[in-house]
Amino acid sequence: LSPVSLRPDVRASRSQHGPFQNKLAKLVEKLSPEREVVDLEHETGRVLFNSMDSFFAYGLLSGDKVYWRFVREFLPKTQQQLLRAEWGDIDSRRLSIAWLKDAFNRGTLHFQMLSFKNNRKMIERFYHRNACMSNGGMLEAVTDMIMINTLSQSRARPGCNCGAAHYSYCNSTSKEKEKNGSFQAFLLLGYK
């Protein structure tokens, strides 16, 4: 029997960082001129979402692609509870995906990544030293790319200046919001 403190062998290599960063840059560049809201039905949007999922999952010390444990360290308890309430009784891997979709939909991914970038000790606690998240230059570049994507998506939503990535939510009446639930309208990337 192995001691509880032993972690699984993490196979993370810095040689993957350059090609991965280039892939993300091309995806964001491809989406920047879009004038429509991009969701998972848009092929490039789906590839960007999956790439960001891989970005956060790559090099986790737990080796299970569950970055929810890392992310929740930065979220207020109420936001964690709202995510759980919206997505129901799901495992931590799906909570990771739910958080990522929520961050994309609300346009908050850039700000959350800024907080990740400024907390190196937390990154070291959850990620291998060769993980994408541990590479400060790459993390900063990807954060900037997400900001560019968020800005281009906000242009796709005329009249919306709240930072949320869902035009119909911003323009719906309070009765519609109450009927649909505040999070239901944000399910632009619909995982359920």
UniProtKB/TrEMBL annotation:
Family matches, as SUPFAM superfamilies: RUN domain-like
Coiled-coil blocks: none
One GO MF term: kinesin binding
Protein name, UniProt field: RUN domain-containing protein
CDD domains according to UniProt: RUN_PLEKHM2
Lineage: Eukaryota, Metazoa, Ecdysozoa, Nematoda, Chromadorea
Family annotation (InterPro entries): PH_domain-containing_M2 (IPR053015), Run_dom_sf (IPR037213), RUN_PLEKHM2 (IPR047327)
Single GO cellular component term: endosome membrane
